[in-house]
Amino acid sequence: MADTKSNKAVLITGGSRGIGRAIAIHAAKASYDIIFSYRTNLDAATSLYDELHALGAKAHGVQADVSTEAGVIRLFQFADEATGRIDSLVNNAGNVAPSSRVDSFSAARVNDLLALNVLGPILCCREAVKRMSTLYGGRGGNIVNISSIAASLGSPGEYVDYAATKAAIDTLTKGLAKEVANEGIRVNAVRPGIIDTDLHANSGDRKRPFKLQSLIPMQKVGTVDDIAQAVLWLLSDEASYITGSLLDVSGGR
Fold first, then answer.
1. Mean pLDDT, to the nearest integer, of 163-185?
2. Looking at the domain assignment, is residue 23 inside a domain?
3. Transmembrane residues, as ranges (predicted)?
């Protein structure tokens, strides 16, 4: 890894697979120290840990369920002990339920999505602000929330509840950005379109991205690297005057 004056530390929730994993790898190549959380998949977390260390990065993985307040507090306390600071937070952890109409939703399904996709990111933002904000003696920082183009499209007949949780993330991004803009913190969101990840298996069809490819103006499915590169740009000084923005990475959809 290239010699740097002082590596910045980024915390990535849900970092062991898919988009989160790609963000961690790109962050390692950009000389970040990395803390990533995973929920249950120790094998995936160990594999990522090994890859990050092979790239020369200082990396720490921690099992933490960020759909709960206890899990969020555990994650940030671990980060405090591991690095002593957090310069950036990427709220990536999230999930989708099997494709279904609203009239078939159960309360349990919706509550699970709200806990992981909305409550978790809000609580992670709370803990990050307490550490980054100049109001608390911090030195500023960045938050990037992973939303979805579904927030605009609504995902009818598939998962309106998931789309609604991502609309909440868009609102969180805009509101928090204004709230902490004068405290050294920038807050933005990336809204992926149809991306080739295992998340689609959770909706019931792993091949879904390629079945919907014709709906994408660019006529191609996005990759996890497309999203990771957008996130790293928003974290960088090249985006230093950008806050409260929703960056669509969706092939024009």
1. 98
2. yes
3. none
* 162 given a catalytic annotation: yes
Structural domain count of the chain = 1
Tens-digit pLDDT profile for residues 196-250: 887 655 656 667 777 778 888 888 988 999 999 999 999 999 999 999 999 999 9
Domain membership of residue 40 (yes or no) is: yes
Q: What is the CATH number of the domain that holds 79?
A: 3.40.50.720
Output 4-8 pairs: Cβ under 8 A, ≥24 positions apart.
Answer: 4/31, 7/31, 7/32, 7/33, 7/58, 8/32, 8/33, 8/87, 8/88
Facing residues of 247 across strands?
A: 190
Q: Within 13 Å of residue 124, how many CA atoms lie on the same side as its CB?
A: 39
Question: Which residue of the set 38, 49, 162, 241 is catalytic?
Answer: 162
What does the alpha-carbon distance between residue 4 and residue 126 come to, in Å, rounded to a whole number? 29
Contact 34, 8 (CB under 8 A): no
Give me the chain's average pLDDT, please: 93
Within-domain flag for 113: yes
The residue range of the domain holding 218 is 9-249
Q: Is residue 222 part of a domain?
A: yes
pLDDT tens profile 1-12: 333 345 899 999
Q: pTM for this one?
A: 0.93
Question: What are the distances in angstroms from CA 41 to CA 49, 114, 140, 142?
Answer: 12, 21, 32, 27
Tell me how crowded residue 135 is: count the other CB atoms within 10 A of its CB. Answer: 13
